[in-house]
Amino acid sequence: MTKKVKNIAVLTSGGDAPGMNAAIRAVVRACSYYKVNCFGIYKGYEGLIHNEIEELNARSVRNIINKGGTFLKSARSKEFRTEEGRKKAFDNLVKNNIDALIVIGGDGSFTGALKLSEEYGFPVVGIPGTIDNDINGTDYTIGYDTALNTVVEAIDKIRDTASSHNRLFLIEVMGRDAGDIALNSGIGAGAEEILIPEEDMGVDRLIESLRKSKKTGKTSSIIVIAEGDKSGKNIFELGEYVEENLEEDYEVRVSVLGHIQRGGSPSCYDRVLASKLGVGAVEALLEGKSEVMVGIVHKTVTIVPLTTALEKRIHKHDQLIKVADITSV
Ligand code: F6P
């Protein structure tokens, strides 16, 4: 028989994402609602290894639903990747009488959670929190919607100056392995071309397409590029290549949006998503579930095995790529 869960701990790990605070808040308040104790672990797995743990109550999470970042702080822990690191982490969970763990983060964080559970039989539940939207088994990850809005707002501003100067802008957005941010923000902000990690359009096709755009009367252009695109050139090299190979007199500028994409007050969508998944995670643990992720599929809170969450996502970008092509003629 599985042990009754009375003390739940929560941590945020990996790259932070807007809405993580809202998720922590939902976990803490669900614990309070179901009358179980809740503990916050600071700095992700790093804090667990160093016993930076504090009990939280419903009032500890007041006034944070609207705040970006994570008040529990986050880290990418190298030590937790080692067996010794995980042993220290487990010992601290036992020392604090914690009997289940909720991990808010992305694939690296879930891999760590799964290892802890496999090695020590410790109950774990994951909540997808990353701006990349690159987790299998959930339609959306916490932070993605906010990041998209941030990116679109930034590109809108760049468009103003691009059009004033008849310039071509290459804009780099986050996404090492996933083109979700690039593709959706690109369509939303009316980009001429979008380069994503999942498809290699080739630099020559890009030049060809820009020539065509110029011929149809476009005087400025926006190209959105995911940081993990497969052109084989970094964005500055790509900028030079475009400038050298486009016969038309086009001034090229490069803009890397960087970490502003990870900050800011979460959108209403992310706050609600985080609230649903936080409550869902506590309920899953109280129902005796472990090694699962709580995600959202067709607007419904859905539980999938962590192994499924860690599988490579089969991207469904075809429709979006077509829409981007059609709307940028
Ligand atoms: O995983 C989220 C993410 O923001 C990626 O899009 C990006 O590649 C990476 O984190 C950046 O990580 P760091 O903040 O450690 O430089």
Report on this structure:
With 329 residues, the chain is α/β, with parallel strands linked by helices. β4 (100-105), α4 (107-120) and β5 (124-128) form a beta-alpha-beta unit. Helix content is 41%, strand content 18%. α1 runs parallel beside α9, α5 packs across α6 and α6 (180-188) packs parallel to α11. The strands form 2 sheets. The chain has a 7-stranded mixed β-sheet, sandwiched between helices. A 4-stranded parallel β-sheet has the order 7-8-6-9, with helices on both faces. The protein has 2 domains: 7-143 and 266-309, Rossmann fold; 145-262, Phosphofructokinase domain (Rossmann fold, 3-Layer(aba) Sandwich), CATH 3.40.50. The radius of gyration is 22 Å and the shape is elongated. The protein starts with 6 loop residues before the first strand and ends with a helix. The structure holds 6-O-phosphono-beta-D-fructofuranose. The site of 6-O-phosphono-beta-D-fructofuranose has 10 residues, from loops.
Class per helix and strand makeup = alpha/beta
* Poorly predicted runs of 5 or more residues: none
N-to-C order of helices and strands: EHEHEHEHEHEHEHEHEHEEHH
Spatial strand arrangement across the major sheet = 3-2-1-4-5-10-11
CATH class assignment of the largest domain = Alpha Beta
**What share of residues is helical?**
40-55%
Oligomer: single chain
User: Care to count the β-strands?
Assistant: 11
Q: Supply Rg.
A: 22 Å
Q: Which ligands occur here?
A: 6-O-phosphono-beta-D-fructofuranose
Average of the residue pLDDT scores: 95
